[in-house]
TrEMBL record:
Signal peptide: none annotated. It comes from the Eukaryota. GO terms for biological process: proton motive force-driven ATP synthesis. The gene is LOC104606475. It comes from Nelumbo nucifera. One of its GO terms (cellular component) is mitochondrial membrane. It holds the Pfam family ATP-synt_G. InterPro entries: ATP_synth_F0_gsu_mt. Belongs to the ATPase g subunit family. This is Uncharacterized protein LOC104606475.
């Protein structure tokens, strides 16, 4: 356990040295590249205004998302009614989608358990 702690401290030290050496130039380069997204003047009031605009814009998008959801659900219902006419490609895509959802579920469970595969080990 102590050796892992020492390794972690060494890696953290290396990372902090790298950031100290290259962080300022990276920051300047990043800000220069993305200056079109910076609102002038960068004040607290402007940040509060932008956060409120983002929140209420997303809130206003809920009806459109709700409508899109029901359209997608109607499409799935229509496909299910006509499942005898379903092509092999469509069934394969649906199977891959289900497999992907299951894989994300499994990955989430593994991450939730602290990256252990068989359970919790203190």
């Amino acid at each position: 356990m102590a050796s892992k702690l020492h390794q972690l401290q060494a890696k953290a030290c290396q990372a902090s040295q790298f950031v100290a050496k290259h962080g300022c130039s990276y920051y300047k380069q990043l800000m220069e590249k993305n200056k079109q997204y910076v609102v002038e003047p960068p004040t607290v009031e402007k940040c509060n205004l932008l956060s409120k605009q983002l929140f209420y814009t997303r809130l206003a998008s809920i009806p459109g998302r709700y409508e899109s959801f029901w359209k997608e659900l109607d499409c799935v219902k229509q496909l299910w009614k006509n499942r005898q006419e379903l092509k092999v490609e469509d069934a394969g895509i649906a199977a891959l989608f289900g497999l992907e959802c299951y894989a994300w579920y499994c990955a989430g469970e593994i991450v939730g358990r602290g990256f252990t595969f068989t359970g919790y080990y203190p």
